[in-house]
Amino acid sequence: MAKRKIKIKKNKLGAVLLTVVLGLLFFSLVLRYSYVMLSGQSSGEDLIMRANQKYLAQLDQSAERGKIYDRNGKILAEDVDRFRLAAVIDKRASEESKEPRHVVDKKKTAKQLAKVIDMSEKDIEKRLKMKKAFQVEFGKAGQNLTYHDKEKIENMNLPGITMYPEVQRFYPNGNFASHLIGMAQKDPETGELKGALGVEKIFDSYLSGEKGHASYTKDIWGYIIPNSKNEVAPKRGDDVHLTLDSNIQVFVEEALDDMVKRYEPKDLFAVVMDAKTGEILAYSQRPTFNPETGEDFGKKWANNLYQNLYEPGSTFKSYGLAAAIQEGKFKPKEEYESGHRDIQGSRIYDWNKKGWGDIPMSLGFTYSSNTLMMKLQDLVGTDKMQSWYEKFGFGKSTGSLFDSEQSGNIAWENELMQKTSAFGQSTTVTPAQMLQAQSAFFNKGEMVRPYFVSSVMNPVTDETFVEGKRKVTGKPITPETADKVKEELDKVVNSKKSHASQYKVEGYRVAGKTGTAQVADPDNGGYVKGPNPYFVSFMGHAPSKNPRVVVYAGMSLAQKRDQEAYEMGVSRAFVPIMKNTLQYLNVGEEKLDEKVTIHKVPDVTGKSVEKAEKILADKSLNPVIIGQGEKVVNQSPSSSTRLLPNSHVLLLTDGDLTMPDMTGWTRDDLVAFESLTGVKLKVSGSGFVTSQSVGLQSPIDKKTEIEVKMKSQEEE
After folding, report:
1. E strands within 338-394?
2. pTM of the model
3. Which of 208, 246, 314, 421 is catalytic?
4. CB 322 within 8 A of CB 483
5. Which CA distances in Å does 111 have to 121, 156, 186?
6. 314 is a catalytic site residue
7. Which residue in 101, 174, 445, 465 has a CA-CA distance of 20 to 30 Å to 663?
8. Closest to 81 measured CA to CA, from 141, 196, 157, 164
9. How do 68-69 and 239-242 pair as beta strands?
10. Has the keyword Membrane been applied to this entry (predicted)?
């Protein structure tokens, strides 16, 4: 009996303990769920956010990148819609479809696609027959296809063929002020276009705009819940308007191409600047690259105008001359002894080794005498001459917007450096500094800063964020001194004893200063060795008395015809650039006709060919019809571009491509044709088109080989 009582007591105790444990568990669960319900947190995780992530869908919307324009409204860089071709070749794609979703007839598909993309029928068919692949693409031939290409392929009704839209950065002119305009590339992580070089990089934050996004809530089955969509539209990027003039830029590019063919230099540049305002009208360098194709990208990263330091040679003598004139130490008719000077154990010669005996100072400058410049430094005073170079802006950057602009260095550590600096050795500069210093001679002693951006503005809001304008950066000399320097620069080119007559330009009086300098060897120290290891240059302006334009060109280490390069300098580039620019700007004897009206190109896309022709004719513009269609689908130049009367406007129609009459076309017209049609031209010569290898109205496509010959008016 006692044992039974003890057993009953133990059972009751177990039941109580079990009830207590279960009660505690239940109570803790109640507390836990209450906490979760009230706080929305579990194990440190926000459950509301987690639920939103599960049922909330978000889509980013890319902003249109801003355009880059020249001074006349011609597009230099813009976003364009392009398409990538792909083909589904796996039969399983069509299993649950009434219509085929894969390539059924591979031979027929290959034959049709070969009419549009730059790939042979045989190679296309080979791709379509690949095994163990669900989908195939066609490499470079199937990328960067235009809307016109897309329409052609879609009209073929080929099963399994897909076109993926892509936004590409388009540079319609190819090799064209590439180191200034720069290049935008897709970020491999985000897929967004980012500026990698030049203006594209400097103004990336303006050009990029702001992303938009759309969000909506969906139920557990994936359907969108009504009225749940929230959308923020993307903000278009701002446009950058440059001071470049595309027509003058063409003159520069063609001249540099000619120099490369003739001399094969290691380095080459040319820049055109408005003498009064400091606006950069054109700039290019070699080696260069094509931002559209990426060809030669990376051969040289630095922009010579702002980022490349070099010893300028005798063009630097102009600033020592100006200092001596200002100090009253340069006396044109007073004679000095030319030949050589011994400095710190080194003998420094005039460039002809023996000099010219005792000659007047003015003639010494015309002859580009080194001993004259060393004597003028002595007369002015060594320390005072250094301060004069500083007044002209050397040793510090011009303060441009260009990233990583170099400051250069006035080499003044010892007497040898001081004396060699007098004729442009030892001291280092940038072309931008040289242009800024030179501008003092054309603006009554005031220096103006070179600049290349006219404005940064948003075409939607009409806000202007950056505005380029003429800026005086100092006044090192008086107007009288400036005039006297111009007189001496005129003698360098135009006097009877000139050694620089190769820089004369027919029909215009040009003045300027030549330069020949040894090239520093960064790898081995000292200077590059060889028969003609020189940097040759010319800083010239025209008209001589009242300059409108400054052209500065320089070339380093010609690998071909080096002796000719030493003797002729950069005259083969300078002369055509200066002449074409002056003629284009109506400078000199050809006064600007104030009655000439510059028209804005109207937008005629979407209009019938007949109506488009009438609209353009009413604006005194010449329409050029490309294709057999009845409606205009694209045009070049684009709307709002400013053109002179009788300029060509190319109109692409919705029909098959046909060959237009290119007689009399300019390089700009040819670039526009390639941009609109995707047809590449083989161009020889310069000036205006005189002949073409394909007849008028002949059918053409991307595979058609078209040769175009150009000649200047002087050659005809």
Report:
1. 340-343, 346-349, 358-360
2. 0.78
3. 314
4. no
5. 5, 11, 33
6. yes
7. 174
8. 164
9. parallel
10. yes
